[in-house]
Amino acid sequence: MKLRRGFYTRADVLTLARALLGKRLVVPSDEGARVSGRIVETEAYLGAEDKAAHSYRNRRTARTETMFAVGGTAYVFFVYGMHWHVNLVTTRAGAPHAVLIRAIEPLEGLELMAARRGVAETSASLTNGPGKVCQAFGIGAERYGVDLCRGPLVLIDGPRGRIGRSPRIGVDYAGEWAARPWRFFERENRYVSRPRGVTS
DNA sequence: TGAATGATTTACT
DNA sequence: GTAAATCATTCAA
């Protein structure tokens, strides 16, 4: 069953980061096929107060503008000169909270994902990282600000396994905020990017 | 206008 | 384990 607006707006971002585990992301493709998979790793970014978030101190720019949109909006951005990341914005408009999708367990369109990634369909490297997820799912600038409640990207309800948590990855610049355990993942799922936690 | 840097991935030692 | 790749965004001046 497709998730509606209320799913994204009723709970706080930490609750949503957990609740998103097990949900199925479905994305159509220009190639005709479609790709989908279960979200198995997320990170929460807490708006204006969170030094690790792009929206820290309510920084509102062309890039972060969509973080201030209503829950259910996609926040897509480019980093390191080569990688895209996708977040799902949560809560009400004006509150810049978002959940980063860090890893997905592929379900449909494995062949297309493998072609886009340049690895075997059976490889965990297909979707076990935020940049890899975007490459496999074909998510880039054209998805900036799209509404998951209107499509073509949608989220479908689904079962989830046992959950683990750890500090977030790659945010050491954020000082004490980097130590907060705001990363969530399915334990023992082979597509989780760092199964054991925070080792660099 | 210029300089620094990053919510990463990949290849290599 | 370390380092290179590579450029949009950000902020200072």
In short:
By secondary structure, this protein is of the alpha+beta class.
Describe this structure in words.
By secondary structure, this protein is an alpha+beta fold. It has helices at 5-10, 13-19, 110-117, 130-137; strands at residues 24-28, 34-46, 74-79, 83-90, 97-108, 154-156, 163-166, 183-186. A hairpin with a 5-residue loop joins strand 1 (24-28) and strand 2 (34-46). The structure holds a DNA duplex (13 and 13 nucleotides).
Helical/strand content category? alpha+beta
The arrangement of helices and strands along the chain is: HHEEEEEHHEEE
For the sheet with most strands, the description reads:
8 strands, antiparallel
Strand content: 25-35%
Helix content: 10-25%
State Rg. 15 Å
**CA distance, first residue to last residue:** 38 Å
Coarse morphology: globular
| Contiguous runs where pLDDT drops below 50 for at least 5 residues | none
User: What is the helix tally?
Assistant: 4
Residue-averaged pLDDT, rounded? Answer: 95
Task: Please give the number of β-strands.
Answer: 8
